[in-house]
Structure prediction request, 522 residues.
Amino acid sequence: MKKYVVWLLLLTLVISLCACGNSASEETASTAAGAPETAAVETPAAEPKVLHVAESFATTNLDPRKDSNSWYTSIYGITQTLFRITDDSSLEPWLAEKADVDDSGLVWTVQIKKDAHFSNGNDVTSQMVIRNLQSTAENIVNFSALGSFQYHVVDDKTFTITTQEIYPTMLIDLAAPETAIVDLDNSGDYVNSIVGTGPFLLKQFQPEQLVVVEKDPNYWGGEVKLDEAWFHYIKDDDSRLMAMQNGEVDVHSNVNAAALEIYSADPQEFTVYTRPATRVQFYFLNQERLSDNVRAAINLAVDPEVLASFQKGIVSPTSGPFNASAPYGKVTKPACDPEKAKSLLKEDGYTLNSKGFYEKDGRPLTVTISYYAARSLDVIALSMQEQLGKIGIQTTLTCVEDPDSTYIATRDFDIGLYCMIADKAGDPYFFLNSVLREDCYYDIAGFDSPECEALIDQLSRETDLARRAELANQAVQIAIDDNAFGFTGLFNKTTVVRNGVSDVFENNPGDIYRISEFTDIR
Prediction:
């Protein structure tokens, strides 16, 4: 009986040991089998890259052939043109591979990039491009000349444009946002849909409120970094500032002086980009009232650096009507020199009176500065009065509401302040033809130079962009050397971005681009 009990106990122990061994083996095997399963767990997907942009202007429709809608569709990254304006105001191919003009200057051959296609997958063909250019001519007055040209399809990606006369600004027109290329057959009502060639597709459009675009995964130009961009219409400066500070938006341009100071004081959060743009502050010197020496003395006394400092970063000082980085902005003018200015007045027979002002034959040298308050011209007028007073020129300020109907029309001024967009679509001809040309609209101060006139005549026929820049530089330099004008400042394009945002065309002089396939946010 005792033996039986011993053997029973031994058997029970063996069975228990086997059971424990099997359990341990199963646990080990289970753990081993589970290891790969744990390692294969997927990490959470990255957050979508969504950029929020504050815009000062908005539209009710996205039809690029109406009003200025093409500027918006370009800003939103939906539409593109055959050429585009670079950061240094030159032109480069975009949808086009190249464009050449023959020796006669009348026949242009345009080659479209082979890979260029619309967001719906349709190829950008010669026929569709021609239809777009003709549509622009029919609907936008400033581009009506495109309607008088003859077009010929060479093949799907090549076409010619034949003009009756030399048309030197052809490439400038092909870079203007108004000549955006869209799929005319499939763009719908331009409110709920639009088919362009850009890196982004329209996702949501609330007229004059919000535009949302999403990346085109099949964009012809390559990978698009952003997933979405939201464009919020925020009209007033204070609201845009608050939205940036609250983290509601990541980008906005057209920053005013007060906001610029706040952003600049917070480099940990914001980066500010300031670049001289296309709108110039300048003044006419009336040659029918002021002698050569007096005009030269005025220009030597007025310091653009001082004028810019009073405007707290919204303008940059300039020597001419165009940005110095542009090919056609290479001009110079003498540095501010009050002592030399005084010597020129003395050469003209002026002497200082007891009040510290120059006079001749008992009559004080008094100069009238005419201006209007917009575009900070009131600030410039006051500063000029101070600077001219320091060299002994007495001044009288005359402020008007509408310069074009007063001193521009009547020519009743000594110094006439003005502000205008000088650089339209990356070319100097508009300003030269409007301001320096004989009998032009702004030929109001007696500037007369046959040499300058001849240069502008050549410019009106020249198709080579490098040569156009040379001609423009020579013409503007003549006007500067003649002391016919004084160029003081270029309004800055100031863009603020939240740190981590990149490539929002912050260094481009125009305001027709905002996002591209390279735009990114960390």
Summary: The chain has 14 helices and 22 strands.
